[in-house]
Request: fold
Amino acid sequence: MFVVVLTYVKPLPEVDRHMREHVGFLDQHYADGTFIASGRQVPRTGGVILARAASKEALTAIMERDPFCQRGVATFTIIEFRTSQHQPAFAAFADADTARR
Reply:
């Protein structure tokens, strides 16, 4: 499992000019099962995406196609982790040997 942290590097009006394309990118990867949840940071300095992918390298290749990154308005950091506990409703997304709480 991965956490992707997007950091805006341009002013919000410039970020917002690319929001429609970015949302389309998100929709594509929700549809293919890569993205699990996403949203804005508070305060609005970037975003966060919870994702599943075959590898960090595969997710990096996906994120490099994000219009925010391609247009130079955001950068990203990927954090890989293994779930060790989760809520029952999260079972479909957790690692197979994770304890349910």
Summary: The chain has one domain: 2-78. DSSP finds four helices and six strands in the chain. Helices lie at 12-17, 19-31, 56-63, 67-70. The first helix runs from residue 12 to 17.
